Structure formats: structure tokens, C-alpha cells
Amino acid sequence: MNKRTELPTAENSSNFNRVAGATCQVGTTLENLKAAVCGETGASAKYAACAKLAKEKGYEQLGRLWEATSAAEQVHIRLEAGLVEELEPGYERPTADAPELEEIDLNLIASANGEIFETSDMYPGFIAKAQKEGNDKAVQVFTKAKLAEAVHAELYLQAYNNIDAADDDSYFLCPGCGYIEKGSAAPEKCPICGAPAKVFKQF
Fold this sequence. Notes:
Elements lengths: L28 H28 L3 H28 L16 H30 L2 H26 L8 E4 L6 E4 L17 E2 L1
Helix pairs in contact: 1-2, 1-3, 2-4, 3-4
């Protein structure tokens, strides 16, 4: 990810338009927060299962990528569910059914497609609604998730294109927003939320 001189927001970024033919239904911000928690819960469970399968088949690097993204979705769940709980005390977080998996390469494509949907359809719609309703907290949380999902999609496509190439890089997860950096070290600071390198978790 290229580094900007200022942290990205919905107001200072040019990639927050919603894709033509968007299919995600947008409700109230509270409904959207709940829908996001549900979607992220399913994604986290699927990525954890993909990680297990990849390691069983000898794809250690891909297993670590899926583990990192599963943990990233947990970051989004924590942020989004926290806002739901502020608005609706007693809210019970959803659980996910066991996911259906395919071959490793197809799981990478399915994972990328899911992240692309979230970053180009779901979150732009949710952000616009939260802006309209004046819910700045939801705008910020959705924005962090939207930007992180785009990076996840990029990592999945890179992994797909290099599935048979040797790679010993690590993945570094920002616990503040779910951003993941691939390489030998965490970034000096998160390009999405500004968190310092010392808080990143290595996979």
C-alpha cells in the first residue's frame, strides 16, 4: 500500500464510490452495523477454515495469510459490534455456520471476491448512509473496515498469482483497523489508522 501524507478518510479519499449494480441492501446505520457484524463473522469463520485446510495441504504461507485476515475480521467485528451495543444494550453477537470450502486456489479467489464486495459495494453504501444520518462513529468504523478490506483483496490476488512460488514473508496485522502488511517487518505506522509498529501482530 502506498503511504499518504495524511490518514485516509471518507472525506479526503477518491475511492469511496459504490460500484454500479450494487447488490447490498442498505438500511439504517444500526441495521447496517448489524449486517456488517454478521458478514464479518461469516468471513472470519471461513478464513479460519481456509487457513486450516491450507496448512493441511502444505501451504503454510497461505495458511498464515488466512489466519491474519480471519483475525482482521475480528477487529472489524469488535469495532462494529461495540457501536451496536452502545445503541442497543443486550445485543447478542451472531455466530457463523461451518463454511463450505473448495480447492486452495478457488478459496483464494472466493476470498478476494468477498473482500472486493465489501470494499466496493457494502461499505461505501453503509458509509454514505451513516454520513446522511450524522453518525460520525459509524462513518469512522466503516471507513477503517472498507480500506482494510481492499488491502485484503489485494493480498489474496497476489497469493493466487504466486501460489506455487516460494515465499517466507510474514503478515503483520494492525489491531486498530484490520490493515495487514506483508513483508519482513511491520510498517512504522499503520497507513489507515496510524497505529504504531509495536502494536502489530505477526503471522
